[in-house]
Design goal:
By secondary structure, the protein is mainly alpha-helical. Among the domains are: 19-63; 120-219 and 399-405. The protein is built from twelve helices and no strands. The longest helix has 46 residues, at 172-217.
């Protein structure tokens, strides 16, 4: 909106990035290394080990740029171009991988096409099978307990009658062998039935979850997400195809999508309005929305993972790792968002990040990782979706009928 002086804005842009890169490269890794070594070593030993670990981190951080065309001999080691180029490789890889997963998972989980339709009769049948399985397990465990008790009683009575010597060479030996064989058979059957009960329980929980999703889909919020999922499916297909075309023909977009769309409206439909003004406003709103949703999605996924692995001793390390990933994610987001703003503001971002930064490489690298990630997750979700519940149900029916027969 041009409220502040342009020199002041440029200064604060550079200050923010220098502070962010200093935290990512020089402060947070040192603190993480110190906290890791402090868990098992004394203070002096941990300081020495921290120095060794951080030196190794700097070496690998610097060497990560060797396979990529991002090196520039015109700038110093600690220039913003050199540091940002390496942070960009890691951050863009994270963004592209998560974007590929989100572009496939969001339509898959929010559209009704991929949803498994579960009837109340299916849930009732599963509950009945689960109860029957528990009853069979209980009955067989009773038989096993009786068999073990009889075996123990026979051994004690035989030993008291024959002095514990001659009975082992008589017919009681055959009876003990039969009881032992029967106990082993019952134990194997119980183990198999317990595994079957676990499968039935998981299947029942999945059916309850699918039924709750069906009820949620009938609400206004569910309908909204269904429409959004359908629209996003088309956009994801377009994005995947567009990335494939960019990779094959080595193309990099030179104009943001909002400006291109407004130009199409003005040229083909003859709509008359201030295209430059609205392109700028809509572009910045889209960029803001992308930043908020992408950062929120990253935080939600990372916090789920960190909650699962954190403990009282490692909580500080987990928080610092989260800060490290968020810093790289944010810097790389700005690097990639540069293409989504009008050309006038794009020059300012280019000047702040570094004139010699290979922006085309990062967009191409994003396309490659995004395309590979999308194809990979499509393959995994296809395999998960193709696991036929009917086949599992038939296998479970066979096991239950065999158990009833036994």
């Amino acid at each position: 909106m041009d409220w502040l002086d342009s020199n002041s804005r440029r200064f604060h842009w550079k200050l923010s990035f220098y502070v962010m890169l200093t935290l990512i490269v020089f402060i947070i890794p040192v603190y993480i290394s110190y906290l890791i070594t402090k868990l098992k070593f004394s203070k002096h030993s941990s300081i020495l080990l921290t120095s060794i670990i951080y030196t190794g981190f700097l070496y690998f951080f610097w060497k990560i740029g060797d396979p990529f065309p991002i090196l520039s001999t015109e700038h110093g080691i600690f220039s913003i171009e050199q540091v940002m180029s390496r942070v960009g490789v890691i951050g863009v890889t994270i963004i592209a991988f998560l974007s590929g997963f989100g572009s496939v998972n969001f339509p898959y989980t929010n559209t009704t096409y991929f949803r498994r339709h579960v009837k109340d009769s299916d849930i009732d049948a599963l509950e009945r099978k689960l109860r029957q399985t528990y009853e069979i397990i209980i009955s067989k465990k009773k038989k096993l307990a009786i068999s073990d008790y009889q075996k123990t009683s026979n051994q004690s009575s035989t030993q008291s009658k024959w002095g514990g010597v001659g009975a082992w060479f008589s017919g009681s030996n055959n009876a003990d062998f039969g009881n032992s064989t029967n106990s082993i058979s019952l134990t194997l059957e119980i183990t198999s039935l317990e595994e079957l009960s676990r499968q039935l329980y998981l299947e029942l929980a999945d059916c309850y979850w699918e039924r709750s999703r069906a009820k949620y889909a009938k609400t206004w919020k569910g309908k909204y997400f269904h429409v959004a999922g359908c629209a996003f499916s088309f956009y994801c297909c377009y994005k995947i195809v567009n990335c494939f075309v960019n990779i094959m023909f080595n193309k990099v977009g030179k104009k943001d999508s909002i400006t291109r769309g407004i130009e199409i409206l003005v040229t083909w439909f003859g709509w008359e309005f201030d295209a430059q003004f609205w392109a700028q406003q809509i572009s910045f709103m889209m960029v803001g929305g992308l930043v908020v949703t992408s950062v929120r999605g990253l935080l939600l996924n990372l916090t789920k993972f960190f909650y699962a692995v954190s403990s009282s001793k490692s909580s500080d390390i987990i928080v610092l790792l989260l800060a490290q990933l968020m810093g790289m994610y944010f810097c790389s987001s700005v690097l990639l968002m540069r293409m989504n703003v009008p050309a006038h503001y794009r020059k300012v971002i280019t000047e702040v990040l570094g004139e010699d930064l290979q922006f085309k490489f990062y967009h191409r690298w994003f396309d490659v990782i995004f395309f590979c990630s999308s194809v990979l997750w499509i393959f995994f979700l296809y395999l998960a979706h193709k696991q036929a519940p009917e086949k599992h149900m038939r296998d479970q029916d066979v096991k239950l009928s065999k158990a009833f027969t036994d």
